[in-house]
Amino acid sequence: MTTVSVVVPCYNAAKTLRLCLEAVLAQTRRPDEIVVVDDASGDDSAAIAAGLGCRVLRLPVNRGVSAARNAGVGAAMGDVLFFLDSDVELRPDAVANALRILKDDPECGCVQGVYEPEPLIDDGPAEWYRILHAAHWRRRHLGDVTGVVFALAAIRRDVLRAVGGFDETLRDCEDVEYGGRLAGTCRVVLTDEVRGRHDDASRLLPILAEQWRRAVPLIPLALTASRRGGGQPEHANRPAGILACALAVASLPLGLLHPALFALPFALLACFAAVDPALLRFVHRHRGPAFTAYFVTVHFAVHVVLVSGLAFGSLRLLPGLRRPSARRFRLRWRR
């Protein structure tokens, strides 16, 4: 019988951890063990996990999600590792469905799920923006994929052993780097049969800051994956929208030459808004017309940061600005 370990990295996750773990304990196929890796939290996260009967590993210093996941895998005993973020509440059938997909398809080594279009805890419009965007773009790519998001994903232990551990030098985009190594090793499936509600950032500035951190390493990581022969991860944002945003920002100074030239960036802004009608219909269906207007405004601000981060990350590839390449981490297990 296939055994499964749920690995939950957490850092100051007291707000959502109980909801997360109670949902794991309520699974129709209960995991054989739950390993919670507390990444030197300053709150009651470890006590909450221990109180629910989970196995708790406490890291002495904060090392980031990659190190926490590596520690969890090293301690877990399951044939399948189900990675779950501490701010995700699984549907009751999520673990059972992931195991069934892996069992029915021996070529599938990793199954990842999608977010529900409602937040775990409603913290306002900025969070709704994040939730709806993530729910939509992942559903757009259902099926075989290259990229992996380990917020709710199950992977065979033998695949982890072959590919190696998470890169502990990365605190952002570690899933992008890992997907580049995983590509070609096995089939990776994105399915809406594995679902969960997610609690996301609730204020705009942290959302923009996270977008910047994730955008800067994207192009270097994509080039590294190409050199290894790996595929490129699925796009969270439409390339045409990224281009329209970049051109709109770049053309703004033309208005200083003549006011009529401001028509160009406004036209490009209209193109940006129209580039993904399915996304706008999805948002409108869930939140109505007023929120859709708010969504487009925030979406453009996020794209401005994304474009800026991509440009900055590309500049760092120039000679003299390159950082030393991150070493590849390998996991060693007892089994």
Amount of beta strand: 15-25%
User: Which structural class matches the secondary elements?
Assistant: alpha/beta
Residues in helix, % = 40-55%
Radius of gyration: 21 Å
CATH-derived topology of the domain at 4-200: Spore Coat Polysaccharide Biosynthesis Protein SpsA, Chain A
* CATH level 1 class label of the domain at 4-200: Alpha Beta
Query: How many helices?
Result: 12
CATH architectural designation of the domain at 4-200: Alpha-Beta Complex
Beta strand count: 9
Largest sheet descriptor: 9 strands, mixed
Helix and strand sequence:
EHEHEHEEHEHEEHHEHHHHH
The overall pLDDT, averaged over residues, is 92
Q: Name the poorly predicted regions.
A: 324-328
CATH superfamily of the domain at 4-200: Spore Coat Polysaccharide Biosynthesis Protein SpsA, Chain A
List keywords for this structure.
single chain; 335 residues; alpha/beta; Spore Coat Polysaccharide Biosynthesis Protein SpsA, Chain A; 9-stranded mixed sheet; globular
Structure notes:
With 335 residues, the chain is an alpha/beta fold. The chain has a domain of 197 residues: Spore Coat Polysaccharide Biosynthesis Protein SpsA, Chain A (Alpha-Beta Complex), CATH 3.90.550.10. Strands 1, 2, 3, 4, 5, 6, 7, 8 and 9 form a nine-stranded mixed beta sheet that branches. Strand 2, helix 2 and strand 3 form a beta-alpha-beta unit. Helix 5 packs across helix 12, helix 7 packs parallel to helix 9 and helix 8 packs across helix 12. The two termini are 16 Å apart.
In a nutshell, what does this entry contain?
The protein is 47% helix and 16% strand.
